[in-house]
Give the backbone structure.
Amino acid sequence: MSTLEIRDLQVAVEDKEILRGVNLTVRAGETHAIMGPNGSGKSTLAYAIAGHPKYTITGGQVLLDGVDLLELGVDERARAGLFLAMQYPVEVPGVSVSNFLRSAVTAVRGEAPKLREFAKDLKAGMDALSIDPAFAQRNLNEGFSGGEKKRHEILQLELLKPKIAVLDETDSGLDVDALRVVSEGINRFRATGETGVLLITHYTRILRYVKPDFVHVFAGGRIVEEGGPELADKLEAEGYEAYTKASA
Ligand code: ADP
Ligand code: MG
Ligand code: MG
């Protein structure tokens, strides 16, 4: 069983200190929600873990089963079992969804999946997410609607089977139907018990469908309160105001 351990993580962007000592442990089978106001550093946490070059680590460690991810290249992190669904996925003209997914599976496994097996898994994943079969031949993220982008992220999860999945605002921009399909996908995936999920969100809406085991409130670049799912209900009722005042 895998464990992600974030220890006193400090991160700067363009010489500005953003994360000011984040401590968090996520085990396989657990779902942790990170909630916080805009600009509190939630995406910075996701990008720093994933290895985005703009985010400078100024202190701390991020251990996946004891291996410090911060010392690995971006592709090595993916091979180690880390998956990041970005808040704003990039468009890649000339690369089809199907080719992208097969390359991603190949990169993570270290060998190409058999075509027939991959086609079967891809079809099963797309069916489960109510994705039109024609979608597989479209260019990656090009002209995707908000809902299509998010379904595609969950499809990646199902095919890549990471040890730790970081989902950054997977709920933003979804209508209720898409939110339900995406949430069901996350629930199906986490039911395997083999993946730890870090669900980053601004709104409590998705947490009605995906029940977190733990909720962490983020403000001013650190975790300022922690609790169980009831904390999300409190945030829904009271908002973030109390935290933003305290961290200012
Ligand atoms: P959140 O995801 O919680 O809304 P972010 O991590 O996106 O917060 O942003 C935290 C802070 O870091 C903000 O003040 C934002 O302006 C700054 N920041 C994040 N990324 C960059 C970047 N690439 N360049 C400059 N500033 C950034
Ligand atoms: Mg934001
Ligand atoms: Mg963000």
Observations:
- The first strand starts at residue 3 and ends at 13.
- The chain has one domain: 3-94+163-247.
- The domain at 3-94+163-247 is CATH 3.40.50.300 (Rossmann fold).
